[in-house]
Structures are given as C-alpha cells and as structure tokens.
Known about the structure:
By secondary structure, the chain is an alpha/beta fold. It has helices spanning about 15-20, 40-50, 60-65, 80-90; strands at about 1-5, 25-30, 50-55, 75, 90-95. It has a single domain, classed as DsrEFH-like (Hypothetical Protein Ychn, Chain: A, 3-Layer(aba) Sandwich). Helices cover about 35% and strands about 20% of the residues. The protein starts with a strand and ends with a strand. About 25% of the residues are buried.
Amino acid sequence: MLHTFSRSPFVGDLDAMLLTVRAGDDLLLMQDGVIAGLTGTTALHQLTRAPLGLFALSADIDARGLGVHFSDKITIIDYNGFVSLTVKHAQQMAW
C-alpha cells in the first residue's frame, strides 16, 4: 500500500499511520508532510524505524526551503516518481 502523508507531523496523526503500515508499504511525504523528513526530528526517527520505503516530493521540499535540512534517509522523488509509486501500489491511503 502507498501511504501519502500531507500534513505536518505536529498536526497530522503520524502515530496512527505508523500503526497501520506493513512490511512492503511505501510512504510518500508531500505538502506539509515533508516536515517529517527533517534531520534530527522525532518524526524522522519514528519513520526510519518503520518497515516502510520512504519517499518525499522534491517540489514540496523546495517550496518550503527545507533541502539543506532534509534527511538523506528518505528518497527524494519528482512527480514521475510519484506516478511510479501509484502504479506499484494498487491501494493508497491518504493521511
């Protein structure tokens, strides 16, 4: 399953999302959800411990000026990469 997280981890329910993930799932951080990928945050620590492929949209990272603070543990992709994730996963859950 592809999980898309579009809200700040300070507002969105990251804990609930992490309870539903299974091995083989992927997570795409988008919109304000990219804040969860900042180096040194609790959210990043939680994400890297989960059995997920971790991705983030480059346009959303750039729009927020977070590139220099973004973790190298998350794969940064463009919209073509987003389309590839949707093709890979028949099901999607938006958070």
